[in-house]
Design a protein that fits this description.
By secondary structure, the protein is α/β, with parallel strands linked by helices. It contains 11 helices and 8 strands. Strands 1-2-4-3-5-6-7-8 form an 8-stranded mixed sheet, sandwiched between helices. Strand 1 and strand 2 form a beta hairpin. Helix 1 runs parallel beside helix 10. It starts with a strand and ends with a helix.
């Protein structure tokens, strides 16, 4: 277990591998722990970091830190403290929103970003995610099997206020009018069976050429757990792109090339 002190609060993180840095950011349910298989996949060519954001896992629980701006600042200070330059970001749910906001604020720091289950608008998030208890959320989104047990256990460590507070600032949360200005390579990934987040309308003709969307038919809210083989193959191919290349240039199976509307 690794931890650093940022702004007077403990931030827990884990790291494996060697190479260029890649940051994994968890969602509203869970912690760094469900990223382990994806981290292991990425660690063959990257130094993979996964951290617990404020109010989740083993990082500090403090209501004053739970706003989206504070979570973005956490990522900024984390990168500075560990002396990282340009990074790749893989974010899920809340982590996708934080990663996208960070990329918009510090575009020269982010080489590429994979945003998984990013809603872009509060009205694309099931109200249950914003109001249910922790046990209910864990049972709703994470199936009860051995491969998900660690994620389920860590999901119960979250402060419910860290979840609800992330939805409170609509001008930060709602990204649909701002995402078109993103010039960094961005791959959007959704599970077609996701009960928590509705996939936003994606029009390839009007979206930035640096952006592509993929829908995984066998996945729910956690594509990295629901369909790890396909997800990790997609992650590997996205990371293999040359710096600055659009994810539309992915030389992949037809399933990745298919347009999503």
């Amino acid at each position: 277990m690794s931890a650093i002190l940022l702004d007077g609060g403990i931030v827990h993180y884990e790291v494996i591998g060697r190479g260029r840095p890649i940051i994994f950011l968890h969602g509203w349910v869970g912690s760094w722990r469900y990223w382990v298989p994806a981290m292991q996949t990425a660690s063959t060519g990257f130094r993979a970091y996964a951290l617990d954001m404020w109010g989740f896992g083993d990082s500090a629980h403090d209501l004053d830190r739970y706003g989206l701006d504070k979570q973005v600042a956490l990522l900024d200070h984390f990168l500075q403290e560990l002396g990282m330059g340009k990074v790749a970001i893989v974010g899920h749910g809340l982590g996708a929103q934080v990663g996208l906001l960070f990329t918009m604020r510090y575009p020269t720091v982010v080489d590429r970003i994979m945003a998984i289950s990013a809603p872009f608008e509060t009205n694309l998030v099931n109200a249950r995610l914003r109001s249910a208890g922790l046990s209910d959320l864990v049972d709703w989104l994470l199936t009860k099997d051995a491969s998900n047990e660690a994620a389920r256990t860590d999901g119960l460590k979250a402060d419910l206020q860290a979840i609800s507070t992330s939805f409170n600032t609509s001008d930060q949360f709602n990204l649909s009018q701002r995402i078109g200005g993103l010039n960094n390579p961005c791959l959007l990934v959704y599970g077609l069976n996701d009960p928590a987040v509705v996939m936003p309308l994606f029009e390839p003709e009007t979206a930035p050429m640096t952006m592509h969307a993929v829908a995984l038919e066998q996945s729910g809210h956690f594509p990295m757990l629901d369909d790890p083989a396909r997800f990790n193959r997609l992650l590997t191919d996205f990371l293999a792109l040359e710096s600055g290349e659009s994810p539309r240039d992915l030389q992949l199976k037809e399933e990745w090339k298919r347009r999503v509307r």
